[in-house]
Amino acid sequence: MYNEVSKELFGFGTTLLKVTVEQNVITFQAKHRRAPRSEALEGEVPSLKQEVDFHMSLLYKKKLKQKLETQTNWDIEAVLRDYDSATQLAFTNIVLKEKNI
């Protein structure tokens, strides 16, 4: 589902995806591909690229949460995501409400 959202938003999936589960937290560690438009923005208008990255990350979290809740019976408390554009690494934590454990 993580990769499906990536394909929907960016047109391609990740090059690395690791998933770990500890108690009520599911962590996705992913390495994304650099989109050509991101490279162009980074060279011309770095502040705009940073803003676009921020908003795409918010949209990613929203779509991932919707997909997970629709396709599982999980009650998600929070989706936390950090993305580093320099390395293309993203860590996404899905925090489930205690009743899911």
List the keywords.
alpha+beta, 101 residues, four-stranded antiparallel β-sheet
What does it look like?
- With 101 residues, this protein is α+β, with helices and mostly antiparallel strands.
- The protein is 44% helix and 31% strand.
- The protein has helices at residues 2-10, 36-44, 46-71, and strands at 16-22, 25-31, 76-84, 89-96.
- The protein has a four-stranded antiparallel sheet, with helices on one face.
- A hairpin with a 4-residue loop joins strand 3 and strand 4 (89-96).
- Helix 1 (2-10) packs across helix 3 and helix 2 (36-44) packs antiparallel against helix 3 (46-71).
- The longest helix has 26 residues, at 46-71.
- The protein is elongated.
- The chain starts with a helix and ends in a 5-residue tail after the last strand.
Secondary structure topology:
Elements: H1 2-10, E1 16-22, E2 25-31, H2 36-44, H3 46-71, E3 76-84, E4 89-96
Antiparallel strand pairs: 1-2, 2-4, 3-4
Helix pairs in contact: 1-3, 2-3
Radius of gyration: 14 Å
Outline: elongated
Order of helices and strands: HEEHHEE
What is the mean predicted local confidence, pLDDT? 87
The helix count comes to 3
Q: What portion of the residues fall into strands of 2 or more residues?
A: 25-35%
Characterize the largest beta sheet: strand count, sense, and whether it forms a barrel.
4 strands, antiparallel
* Termini Cα gap: 20 Å
Helical/strand content category: alpha+beta
Strand order of the largest sheet: 1-2-4-3
Share of helix, binned: 40-55%
Unreliable sequence segments: none
- Number of strand elements: 4
